[in-house]
Give the backbone structure.
Amino acid sequence: MKSAGRAVMMRHMELIIADPTGLCFGVKRAIENLEQALERYRHVYSFGSPIHNPQEVERLCRKGLVVVHSPEEIPVGSVSFVRAHGVSPRTMEALHEIRSRVIDGTCPFVRTAQERARALAQEGYQVVILGDENHPEVRGIVGYVESDRPPIVLSNPDDLDPRRRFDRCGVLSQTTQRESVLEELVKRLVSVSLELKVYNTICKATIARQESIVRLVPKVDGIIVIGGRNSANTGKMVEIARAAGVETQWIEHSGELDGGWLENKRSIGVAAGGSTPDWLIKELTEKLRTL
Ligand code: F3S
């Protein structure tokens, strides 16, 4: 059985660091690509925030990263960066049209979800995506569905219209969703579809981080989750901890730590989302050790 994490004894309480925690493979790879590009070129333009962690983005901006919100803001002939969440084929085309040198940081697992969506649409399935329709990863995946039947995006199985019936239905998920929610959606789709194809595109790194929270819960009096408030996977970790009934603080950096909240707690768990860099986790654990 996997342990709950690494335990560190402090003066008044025990600190358990979730395992695994922090940067996932895809975000780590994207940051490495971006740092190499920043060393080589003076400025790199990222369409949207490259990592859902404001402090890490700030650090990269100091090195020359420029975050823009539409391809039109990227100067012709410059270097652009596609973040781990990926983009739609149309956005990728727009980046090439401005003769930008494109550094593609799309996570290979997101790429799989994009390709699955494209293939399902080509094979004539009604595509159903479990995810947040406003999340950039989901917007990118939606762009891969080239069909006269627009994809159905649901963040909650309860939102499935009970009157809908499908001949051929294909379902996949945003990489950071919870497996139990995908299972529930599939359960409902089975009864309204003649044929159902399911791709579990939830990333294993996401599942591992969510499971690390589940293992922490019975061992601690409170959990601190550190990660960007715009990070979907961090949000899901907070949701799991709170649903399990453990007191949980969601902070972006150690400066937000509420010392009063630690009082009367003998054991504290620390977990970080897949887009939280090591330096932010280290700052937090060092601060906790001095309390
Ligand atoms: Fe990729 Fe999974 Fe991270 S999809 S970006 S490795 S959470």
In short: Residues 24-27, 84, 107, 109-110, 175-176, 203, 205-206, 233, 274 surround FE3-S4 cluster (CB under 6 Å). The mean pLDDT is 94. The chain has ten helices and 13 strands.
